[in-house]
Amino acid sequence: MVPLNNKSNPTAAFLIVGIILLLTGMCWGIIGAFQYVIPGLFKSQLSFERIRPLHVSSVVFWIIITAVGCTLYYAQEHTGKKIYSVKLLKWQWALFVLSVLFILITYILGIFGGREYWEFHPILALPILISWILCLFNFFKTTGTIKKQPVYVWMWFTGFVFFLITYIESYAWLIPYFRNNVVNDLTIQWKSYGSMVGSWNMLIYGCGIYLMDKMSGTTTYSFSKIGFAIYFLGLFNLMFNWGHHIYTVPTHGYIKHVSYLVSMTELLLIGRIIFLWRRSVKENKKHFHQSGFRFYVAADVWIFLTLLLAIAMSVPAINVYTHGTHITVAHTMGATIGINTFLLLAVVFDQLNPVIRKIKNYNRYLLPGFWISNVSLIIFWVSLIVAGILKAWWQVHHPEIPFSSMMQSLRPYFILFMITGVTLTAGMWMMLLPVLKQYFVQRIRVKKRMGILYNRRRASLHTS
Ligand code: HEM
């Protein structure tokens, strides 16, 4: 592992865009939560149909773009080589960022045309696809071979390649052959989504394992059996975990159960590896990497909680109830915030360390921000689960009660969800706003210095 000179860290721009998407995406979520409590709020300009995709796409793009940036950074640190082409990297970044910008604007304008989770017009999928291909090429060229590589390099390769395949697959519905058969269409759609999540998990877990070894100053997990076990399970999972996403589609029961079992084993192993690592890290190293370490602890707790919920949801008798309720939303948000976001934040804090180090009294923001967001997240998650249980009970046992009365009885939980959503967001803003500010201050300073140097050189050329 060769530490990079962060003055020339071209992948930081990915992380910064990711953070902006996370912070703004959470604000869209807050508006959505207000709309739970005050139905019809902003109906004419920003209805829930617009807010939901604005929120979900922003936070999903936070995960994707940050995972890409973090992987490309560690790929350089791991090989000790600079990225193969900075020019390609800039193109890749620009294509991605412009597409996301267009996507969000089209949502605000109410222009759709895609499917759930990718509601944007399919034409906008094209620049993202091109950007991904550029990224893949740059990554391959930087890393070279996968022979005798540690497990994280295998994870990165797999994540990049499978994301490409499954992203294309998620647009199979554009071809009438797939679109015209409802079962095939639904199966392919959910299969591709499940695999896409598996692909970005590969990138994130790869970075997570890399950072664990970097923090402890060993290569314990890079070549360990448990590391490779996670890799193969993750690979199996990203190929087959779709089974449990399509309980409503007629397929064999064993497919669903095997896929559930595999996704849970994967969670169990990643939770265990982090737990063992946490115990093994020496006190002085913990202290040195305190902020990153803290996020690992939080992610580990969330892996455990997500696992508990997943076990409950995998019981077919319970699954019948949970479908279409807020329990599914709790499961998705618990995993994407508690696991994906916290692991990514550990990595982001490592990679942006040169920026963060310069923030005066940063612990004043970081510590309260960290605790506020974690405590809020627990209440946020529980309130969704309780609302989900009550809705499920109504769905199965009291369908005669009007929908509006049932929703009225869920109001207290929605209010709690809304309030804790606000505090969760406030916590994240507290931790990340100073980082954004410091990054831009430094960029402006560098630009100014370069301008002065340029002017001096021009002046000296004139005089000579
Ligand atoms: C890191 C932060 C967050 C992430 C990664 C995240 C992720 C997600 C995801 C993936 C979904 C789709 C769930 C599904 O379809 O099952 C979702 C839905 C939603 N989120 Fe978040 N979320 C975050 C923060 C927030 C916050 C702070 C709020 C504010 C209260 C919020 C409110 C909502 C709402 C209202 C929905 C729509 C649920 C529905 O369709 O009924 N989210 N979020």
Structural class: mainly alpha
Cα Rg: 23 Å
Q: What level of helicity do the residues show? A: over 70%
Number of helices: 16
Order of helices and strands: HHHHHHHHHHHHHHHH
The count of strands amounts to: 0
User: What is the straight-line distance between the termini?
Assistant: 46 Å
Mean pLDDT: 90
Largest sheet: none
Q: Which stretches of 5+ consecutive residues score pLDDT under 50?
A: 2-6
Kindly estimate the percentage of residues that lie in beta strands according to DSSP: under 5%
Outline, from the CA principal axes? globular
Ligands, deduplicated: protoporphyrin IX containing FE
Structural account:
Helix 15 (363-397) packs antiparallel against helix 16 (403-463). The chain has 16 helices and no strands. Among the domains are: 8-144; 326-449, no CATH class. It is mostly helical. The model is unreliable at 2-6 (pLDDT under 50). The protein is globular and about 90 Å long. The structure holds protoporphyrin IX containing FE. The site of protoporphyrin IX containing FE has 22 residues, from helix 1, helix 2, helix 13 and helix 16. Protoporphyrin IX containing FE (HEM) binds at residues 22, 26, 29-30, 32-33, 52, 55-56, 59, 328-329, 332-333, 336-337, 341, 417-418, 421, 424-425.
